[in-house]
């Protein structure tokens, strides 16, 4: 069979990579009887999602290995910390996804081939928030 004749459809490439950290938080704006106003913790999972108009050799949106600075940032600034003390705002999943998108664009994106399109933050096995980057 001649596989070189398989037609490649038009479309776009998307990649994602998962990162994780353990952290405590509280949401003091909630009513005192809301369980999340109390100090508690999560095993957070963060996914960064990237695209690129053309693939870089040998066929990458971005080399997954080039995302190491993001892992280092999470390990250094977020892992085993109280997010209420780390974040410049209340650490909901939505605000965390938004904040991490901003940090990634400022600090990681200039050194990689792809562009960030979204960040997803998973607090529990059933709860997540996603921030999608607007037009730029
Ligand atoms: N939209 C959001 N709602 C809530 C957030 C959030 O970040 N965004 N955060 C919380 C708390 O942090 C809470 O710890 C997680 O909420 P919840 O999914 O209710 O947690 P549980 O695992 O206890 O829920 P189950 O009922 O067991 O699925 C609250 N809301
Ligand atoms: Zn929580």
Automatic annotation (TrEMBL):
Cofactor: Zn(2+)
Textual note on the cofactor: Binds 1 zinc ion per subunit.
GO biological process, one term: tRNA queuosine(34) biosynthetic process
Pathway annotation: Purine metabolism; 7-cyano-7-deazaguanine biosynthesis
Reaction it catalyzes: 7,8-dihydroneopterin 3'-triphosphate + H2O = 6-carboxy-5,6,7,8-tetrahydropterin + triphosphate + acetaldehyde + 2 H(+)
A Pfam match: PTPS
Keyword terms, alphabetized: Lyase, Metal-binding, Queuosine biosynthesis, Zinc
Record EC number: 4.-.-.-
GO molecular function: 6-carboxytetrahydropterin synthase activity; metal ion binding
Location of the active site: 36, 80, 123
Residues reported in the UniProt entry to bind Zn(2+): 25, 40, 42
Similarity comment: family membership: Belongs to the PTPS family. QueD subfamily.
Name of the protein in question: 6-carboxy-5,6,7,8-tetrahydropterin synthase
Organism listed in the record: Sinosporangium siamense
């Amino acid at each position: 069979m001649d596989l070189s004749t398989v037609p490649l459809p038009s479309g776009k490439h998307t990649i994602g990579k998962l990162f994780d950290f353990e952290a405590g938080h509280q949401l003091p704006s909630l009513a005192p009887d809301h369980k999340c106003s109390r100090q508690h913790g999560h095993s957070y999972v963060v996914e960064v999602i990237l695209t690129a108009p053309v693939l870089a050799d040998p066929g990458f949106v971005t080399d997954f290995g080039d995302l190491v600075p993001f892992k280092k940032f999470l390990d250094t600034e977020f892992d085993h910390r109280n997010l209420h003390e780390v974040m410049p705002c209340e650490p909901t999943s939505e605000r965390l996804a938004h904040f991490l998108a901003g940090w990634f664009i400022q600090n990681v994106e200039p050194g990689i081939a792809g562009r960030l399109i979204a960040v997803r933050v998973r607090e529990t096995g059933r709860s997540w928030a996603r921030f999608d980057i607007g037009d730029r």
